[in-house]
Amino acid sequence: MSSRAALASEAVRHVLGQVAPGAQEPKVVTTEERLRNGEPYAFVALRLPPADSHSLRQGLDKKLSQIHGVTLHVNAHDEWEVRVDGVPCLLLRLTPLTPEPAEKHPAKGRLAIVIDDMGEDVAVARDLAALGVPIAFSIWPDSGHRVQVLNIAQSAGKEIFIHLPMQPKGYPKVAPGPHALLDGMTAERIQEVVRRAASRVPGAVAVNNHMGSAFTESTYGMRAALSAIKGQGLFFLDSRTTAKSVGVAEARRIGLQVHQRDVFLDNDLAVPAIVAQLRVAEAAALKHGHAIAIGHPHKQTVAAIRAWLKKKSPSVHVVTVSSLPPQ
């Protein structure tokens, strides 16, 4: 993977030289070491010099297609990602040829949206893919239509998560679904469950918890689960189904990239209520620089996101979770 990421970086510089001869070299903004299937690689954010974005995209699409498994994905008009086998390795931040007035489109907040419980409703998956923003699909490993939904996500260049069931409070009356992580499991059994889930959602970059209000409070269980997640080359998004979750603390302890949910979007399924929650997430992104919102595959949620996108602040960009700084 590292060798193809290096080829992709060279391709970016080559195309930039063709589109904007004499331009300055791309500037490295940040470099972060990550793991994929135990192999280290660098996730690099580059600031590109001014260039015609249309010509640049055409050139990159053509050049990157010559490298196996490498694709270009547009997060926003001024932020693109280069992925190797679906894993982000380069973040390209564009500089317009004619800079717009700072007060017109200030880049103040970045919001990532994750849709949980994916893999059952194919029609909603198609609608989400058509929204034109990088919404992450978090797919149940045992969902009935996971293969179709995976194909939709991959064809649309969406970031893919594994929506891993974990024991909730009230279990077994409250059931998380098959092949869940449960309190009392051995570390070996927990690792088996994680490996199985990863094998059923190929191309995933991360895991987030389905339910888990009991399991994510267990230091022993989460330590074993997060070690297994790290071993699969994935990162963890804590859905924060309990305020007492140890997910972030344990992930930090083992050096695993970790993020956490800020806002749930659709506890109330009325479209105006979901739009209101999107505005809460938008405000959090503006206040803190970034935020993560989690929703579910309801038609009302799709309609609310579509309506919000038309009126959201231009200062807030919808981005992938992996492009955000970890906790």
TrEMBL record:
* A GO BP annotation: carbohydrate metabolic process
For this protein, the record's CDD domains field holds: CE4_DAC2
Q: Which Pfam families match?
A: Polysacc_deac_2
Q: Which InterPro entries match?
A: Divergent_DAC, Glyco_hydro/deAcase_b/a-brl
Q: Which residues form a coiled coil?
A: none
**What is the name attached to this protein's record?**
Divergent polysaccharide deacetylase
